[in-house]
Design a protein that fits this description.
alpha+beta; 4-stranded antiparallel β-sheet; 4 strands; elongated; DjlA_N; TerB family tellurite resistance protein
Length: about 230
């Protein structure tokens, strides 16, 4: 055991003589969701240059390091892919907009917009974050959309509506666990069922919602059936 301790001691002394050091340079900043802190934090984006050191002094270049993201709070470094995750504030806004878009799409697909369906839609949108949303506002928005696009109520999900759904749901889906994605579809299903059984146009809209949320066709059918089954 004594020789091993001697070898470790020599290795430690050698490491103190020769080593590497990275000099970091800030190249940007912003706010991100820090995986280390578990919340929104400020960050600096850094690039670095590594150098060999002799007795702690830099002597020879060893190449570039990074880029990395440094949390201003915990000072930990992460890969730049961490910036792909939305901040808590951004995620809440994406979720709110997604529910609002789904509600409008389902209402537009219905043959009629009854007080029951508008009430269900307004409740879902308020719960998602638009706390001042009213049935009258939703009805006016659906009317305005129809007037702007020449849409006929009760028609199948056309290209324009499908694009709007994908624009709202595609960026959100990767950041939602399966129960979260299913919840958005179920909210749309309950709005459709508020005034009676699904129409063909409502089913088509909900199928588009499911596809944008990366749910399988079988899962979409299962959820639509579950939404219409009394608990």
């Amino acid at each position: 055991m004594l020789p091993e301790r001697g070898q470790n001691g020599r290795a430690f002394r050698f490491a103190r003589v020769l080593g590497t050091r990275t000099a970091w340079t800030p190249v940007g900043d912003g706010q991100f969701f820090c995986p280390g802190c578990g919340g929104d934090r400020n960050y600096q984006r850094l690039t670095g240059h590594r150098r060999f050191t002799l007795l702690g002094l830099p002597v020879l270049p060893r190449g570039e390091a990074g880029p990395v993201v440094e949390c201003a709070a915990c000072r930990r470094h992460f890969g730049t892919d961490v910036l792909d995750h939305p901040t808590t504030i951004r995620f809440s806004a994406m979720l709110r907009d997604a529910v609002h878009t789904v509600a409008l799409a389902v209402l537009a697909a219905g043959n009629t917009r009854t007080h029951t369906s508008l009430s269900a839609a307004a409740g879902a949108v308020r719960a998602a974050g638009f706390q001042d949303c009213t049935e009258e506002q939703l009805n006016a928005l659906v009317e305005a959309l129809a007037a702007d696009t020449g849409r006929i109520f009760g028609e199948p999900c056309g290209p324009g509506l499908a694009i709007e759904l994908h624009e709202a749901l595609d960026p959100l889906a990767p950041h939602l666990a399966p129960p979260g994605r299913e919840s958005i579809l179920l909210q749309g299903a309950r709005i459709a069922l508020a005034d009676g059984p699904y129409t063909a146009a409502e089913r088509e809209v909900l199928a588009t919602v499911g596809a944008a949320l990366t749910l399988s066709t079988a899962d979409v059918e299962r959820l639509l059936t579950a939404a219409g089954t009394p608990s």
